[in-house]
Amino acid sequence: MCSTYPVERADLAKNITLAIDEDLLDKARVLAAMRRTTVNAMVRDFLQRAVDAEVGQDAITRELLQLSRASTANLGDVSTATARLREEGSA
Predict the structure, then answer these.
(1) Helix locations, 1-91, DSSP H
(2) pLDDT, tens digit, 9 for 90 and up, residues 31-82
(3) Is the residue at 27 inside a domain?
């Protein structure tokens, strides 16, 4: 079953069509009614959270890379430390 849900904000309204199992859609409608919202709002909120989480991860990764590049820490000879760890693991 295909259902089209318009975005409620008229200034940014875009319609999308979702192919979704009819039983799942019925359950989503019941859940939306229990939450006093709409399936449209639930899908929009889910997508917003997914995008926000990804953007947040990207920002954290960028910040960690900047910190590592700016770091003046001396980690020593990494290849020697790696070899030592391998030796300890095989012992």
Answers:
(1) 22-34, 39-70, 78-90
(2) 999 999 999 999 999 999 998 888 888 888 888 888 888 888 776 666 777 7
(3) yes
Nearest to 1 by CA among 17, 27, 19: 19
Q: Note the pTM of the prediction, 2 decimals.
A: 0.55
40: how many CB neighbours lie within 10 A of its CB? 16
1-26 pLDDT per residue, tens:
555 555 555 567 788 898 999 999 99
Q: Which domain holds residue 54?
A: 2-71
Query: Does residue 79 lie within any of the structural domains?
Result: no
**Which residues contact residue 14 at a Cβ distance below 8 angstroms, ignoring those fewer than 6 apart?**
6, 7
Report helix, strand or coil for 12. Answer: helix
Residue 11 in domain? yes
